[in-house]
Amino acid sequence: MMRKNLYYILILMMWLSCDSGQTGLDQFFPGPGFEKGWSWEGKPIHYVPENLYDYINGEAELYHAYGFQECATLTYFWGSPDDTSFVVDIYDMGTPINAFGLYSIYRHPGYRYETIGAEAVVSAFGIKYYQGPYVVELKAGDSSEKTQGAMQAVAKLVSERIPDSTQVPNLITLLPLEGQVDKTLRYTANEMLNQGFLPAGLEATYRIGDEEVMGFVVLFDDAEGAKTGLEGLRLFYEESGDQFIPNSQMGEDGFVVKTKYHGYVVVSLVGQYLAGIQDLSSPDKGMDLLAKIKNNLKT
C-alpha cells in the first residue's frame, strides 16, 4: 500500500512541477488530479506534418488538406497503465475555419451533440469537438460510466484551458440557415465540388418540399477569380456532355445544366463567390433557395 501511495505522490509531484511551465499544446492537458483515481501515462507525444502518418496513417492526408500544424496526444488511465484508459488528441489546424472544416467531416444529423467547445459529437466511446483553431478528440477502449465521466471531465477542462472563443467561424454563416438540414453544413478546404480548379467552399443539405438538395458557395479571393471559376465549371459540364438549359433568370453570370449524376445544377456569380444548388429535380424548384443564398452573400 505504501509503495502504491508513493507512486501516486510521485506522479502528482511531477505534474505540479511541470504544469505551470507547460507551453504549446501541452498546456491544455489537465493534470492527473482532475478526478480521483485517474493518472496520465508519461508525457504528451507530439506529431508534426512530416510524421503525422506514423500516428493516423489512414487519415493523415485529410488532416493535411485542412492545414494541420501539430498534434499532441496523451493517455489517461485508471489505477495503472494496464487498466481502463482513454486517449486525448489535440490537433492544431492553424485557423478556426480549418478546425471547423475538419470537424464537419465527422458530423451527421443522427449523431448526439453536446456543448463542449464550439460543438461536440459525443458517443459512448469518444468525444470530438472543435474550438478556435483546435480539434480535440477523446477515444476510449470501453463504454463504462467511469470512463465516460472521466472523458467528459477532461474534454471540458481542455476546453476551459483553450483561450480561443467557442464561437463558430463567421465564414460558415455565408449559407442561409432557413431550410438547411441541421448538422449538414461542411467547409471544404480546396477542390470544391471535387474540381481541382476550384478553391475552398461551403456546402449544406437543404429541404425543398419533399426533396433534399445541396446548396453551395465557392470562395474566391476576388471577383476575377470567381469569373474564371464560373467559366471553368461551364467548360467541365460541356466536356462531360451535360445539357445546358436556357433560363432567363440566370443571365450571363450563371447557367442551368442537366447533369448525369446530380440532377439539375444551377450556378450564379456573386462578386467573389459562386452560389449554386445541385441535385434538383427541376431548375425552377431551386430558384427561391438560390436567391436566398445570393442575398445572404450580398449582406
Describe this protein with a few key phrases.
single chain, 299 residues, alpha+beta, Protein Transport Mog1p, Chain A, 2 domains, seven-stranded antiparallel sheet, 6 helices, 26% helix, disordered N terminus
Question: What topology emerges from the helices and strands here?
Answer:
Layout: H1 2-19, E1 38-47, H2 60-65, E2 70-78, E3 85-92, H3 96-104, E4 112-114, E5 119-123, E6 126-131, E7 134-140, H4 145-161, E8 186-188, E9 201-208, E10 211-219, H5 223-239, E11 243-244, E12 254-258, E13 264-270, E14 273-280, H6 287-298
Antiparallel strand pairs: 1-2, 2-3, 3-7, 4-5, 5-6, 6-7, 8-9, 9-10, 10-14, 11-12, 12-13, 13-14
Describe the structure.
The structure is a single chain. The protein is α+β, with helices and mostly antiparallel strands. It folds into two domains: 2-161, Protein Transport Mog1p, Chain A, CATH 3.40.1000; 170-298, 3-Layer(aba) Sandwich (Protein Transport Mog1p, Chain A), CATH 3.40.1000. It has six helices and 14 strands. The protein has a seven-stranded antiparallel β-sheet, with helices on both faces. Strands 8-9-10-14-13-12-11 form a seven-stranded antiparallel β-sheet, sandwiched between helices. 36% of the residues are buried.
